[in-house]
């Protein structure tokens, strides 16, 4: 009975580690999105994560929600500096996420300040 329990727990741990490795190393897609940065916050009760939104249209009808990993200090500073401005975000989409990474499967890797196609004077 002890041997079965040991093998079962070992197999369960191995499956979890393989799943975690797959989710963290294999991206589903990569790309860029542009829009006005309307929200960027550090939220959570148990695990604080960085979450944000950009508006991809004039009326705000199309909202792109994203997360930023804590290790990306430069991305966090750039997003805080550009809140309210038009930005171009480079992201990696993952198959899944964990509660300590963020709420979405989109993770920002780079931020560039952009020029709005709607308001050329900004």
Describe the fold and architecture.
The protein has 122 residues and is an alpha+beta fold. The protein has a single domain, classed as Nucleic acid-binding proteins (OB fold (Dihydrolipoamide Acetyltransferase, E2P)), CATH 2.40.50. Helix content is 27%, strand content 39%. It contains two helices and five strands; from the N terminus they run αβββαββ. A five-stranded antiparallel β-sheet has the order 3-2-1-4-5, covered by helices on one side. Strand 2 and strand 3 form a beta hairpin. The longest helix is centred in the N-terminal third of the chain and has 24 residues. It is elongated and about 70 Å long. It starts with a helix and ends in a 9-residue tail after the last strand. The model has no long low-confidence stretch (mean pLDDT 88).
Can you tag this structure with a few keywords?
single chain; alpha+beta; OB fold (Dihydrolipoamide Acetyltransferase, E2P); five-stranded antiparallel beta sheet; 2 helices; 39% strand; elongated
The CATH class turns out to be Mainly Beta
Shape: elongated
Overall structural class, as computed from helix and strand content, comes to: alpha+beta
Beta-strand segment tally: 5
Remind me, CATH topology?
OB fold (Dihydrolipoamide Acetyltransferase, E2P)
What is the CATH superfamily? Nucleic acid-binding proteins
| Average pLDDT metric | 88
